[in-house]
Amino acid sequence: MNDVSQAAGKLDLQDLREWYDAAELNLLLEAQAPDETMYWKVTATEEWEELESAAQIADILHLVSQEGDTFNFEGEEPINKYAQGLRLADGNFMLELAIVDSHAYNMRIAYGPKADSASSSPDDDVEPYGPESLTVAQVHEVLTGWVLGRGLPDGYGGSIHMYR
């Protein structure tokens, strides 16, 4: 059994809850070694480019400047993790991280004391300035840790959706 399957078993994902805190999500996020090579693209470029270093993430996020613009990060083939985000009408971002094994464990990230009351449905909109509406600094903090193989910082959490 691989580390992702073991982590998923510890979280009992057969009976999904509305909310998982950082320590719980980190079981999944830290279950895989960091990819040696990561790739990224944004709405404006549409071409996958190699991520040179975690320091480049800030510059990439600044390319996502208009409401509805998106960004994506992923590892090498076969893809075992990805991140995706969207610039919101309030100027902030929605962020999802995913670990891919036999299933895709997609996590919508939120921050703060009210994060556990945020909607967890992938079809629901993110509330303007709500816990799932993350600033560029928050997205940078989470993505940098994710690229480097670390888990979520304290104060973050999210919902998990499994795709088979």
Give the tags.
164 residues, alpha+beta, eight-stranded antiparallel beta sheet, 4 helices, 21% helix
Architecture overview:
The protein is about 20% helix and about 30% strand. By secondary structure, the chain is α+β, with helices and mostly antiparallel strands. The protein has an eight-stranded antiparallel beta sheet with strand order 1-8-7-6-5-4-2-3, with helices on one face.
Please describe the biggest sheet, giving its number of strands, its sense, and whether it closes into a barrel: 8 strands, antiparallel
Total number of helices:
4
Helix content: 10-25%
* Termini Cα gap: 18 Å
Give me the secondary-structure category: alpha+beta
Beta percentage is 25-35%
Taken from the alpha-carbon principal axes, the silhouette is globular
CA-based gyration radius: 15 Å
Query: What are the secondary-structure elements, in order, as H or E?
Result: HEHEEHEEEEHE
Whole-number tally of structural domains:
1
Provide the residue-averaged pLDDT: 81
